[in-house]
Amino acid sequence: GTTDDIILQTQGLTKDFKGFTAVSEVDLAVRRGSIHALIGPNGAGKTTCFNLLTKFLIPTRGTITYKGEDITRVKPADIARRGLVRSFQISAVFPHLTVLENVRIALQRKRGDSFDFWNSEHVLKELDGEAARLVEAVGLAEFSRHQAVELSYGRKRALEIATTLALDPEMMLLDEPMAGMGHEDVDRIAELIRRVSADRTILMVEHNLSVVASLSDRITVLARGKVLAEGDYATVSKDPRVIEAYIGA
Ligand code: ADP
Question: What pLDDT was estimated at residue 150?
Fold first, then answer.
């Protein structure tokens, strides 16, 4: 494809921490509409990369381009406004509100907070309908009236995806969406990610390699801050450097 297909790109992305280079000259190109996984052994620089992409950290060198615009110096809140949203580590779920209420609040946040606007019964009703549709879409319809705190681990994650989807992101960054989950939850979330990826781009850091294998269109392997390999799962999993990085970790 052409570069028009690339929604997010980094060039020479580098982050030094007091002389230690956590991310080194990373060139990443995420294709629009794809599920792209960032993998690698502990300490490879995956989290630092995500923090650079969402502007929690300022790069030492390099550029980040999103939808053809240089966002290297854009503020974190502005990144979300442009449609690039990170889930899981920052997505707030209020434990004692219901599933439906949590999603409605996320929708309200997206729409703005003008007092007059929120007084309109018509708008509130419309939001309820939209919230119910999102709750249904993530498979939580039968739990709509349950408090978030009552949900299983995997369903809580599904609720986080719903609150993230409420922001209508064009691209979602998922931090280890399957961390700490049992088989059933893993299957449910994998299915959900597959479904929401139909009309958006997903970049995820995930340790569960069978999930990565089944979900990802493309995989970038990091080791010691550098890109070690890139390609589909069949290609990178056979790469001797990748095997060595995992074994040597
Ligand atoms: P991963 O997510 O792949 O496990 P990280 O991005 O968390 O890797 O870390 C990459 C390396 O950078 C690690 O060696 C880590 O200790 C180091 N590192 C991360 N954050 C900081 C920091 N704030 N200060 C110093 N070193 C850091």
Answer: 95
Name the domain boundary from 127, 144, 168: 168
Q: Choose which residue among 18, 21, 26, 47 to substitute to test ligand 1 binding: the one with the highest number of ligand atoms within 8 A of its C-beta.
A: 47
Q: Which helix (H) or strand (E) holds 102?
A: helix 99-111
Question: Does the beta carbon of 216 lie inside 6 Å of ligand 1?
Answer: no
- Rounded average pLDDT over 212-232: 96
Q: Whose CA is nearest to atom 16 of ligand 1?
A: 43
Query: Distance of CA 73 to CAs 19, 29, 235, Å?
Result: 22, 19, 34
Structural domain containing residue 142: 91-168
Q: Count of domains in the chain?
A: 2
User: What pLDDT, in 10s, does the model give residues 57-113?
Assistant: 999 999 999 999 999 999 988 888 899 998 865 457 899 999 999 999 888 877 765
115 Cβ inside 6 Å of ligand 1: no
- Nearest residue (CA) to ligand 1, atom 6: 45
* C-alpha span between 41 and 166 (Å, rounded): 32
